[in-house]
Specification:
This protein has 77 residues and is mainly α. The chain has one domain. It is elongated, with a radius of gyration of 17 Å. The model has no long low-confidence stretch (mean pLDDT 90).
Amino acid sequence: MSKNARVGLWLFGIYLAFYAGFVWLNAFSPETMKLTPIPGLNLAVLYGFALIITAFALALLYGILCHPSGDRREDQK
């Protein structure tokens, strides 16, 4: 498996855990999602925005960490 694929799988795992927390809270603790830590915005909305921001941040991180040519290593030049 290439380095890019491994990095991608790790980042996917991080996002999957974050998203699973969102789904779990909605399914088993809907009252928690009704809390309003910021006036006018409940936890469900804040968590949803955090999911979107996290997806962009992880995509940027992937772009920074992965070499555009795939698994090309310095010793293969």
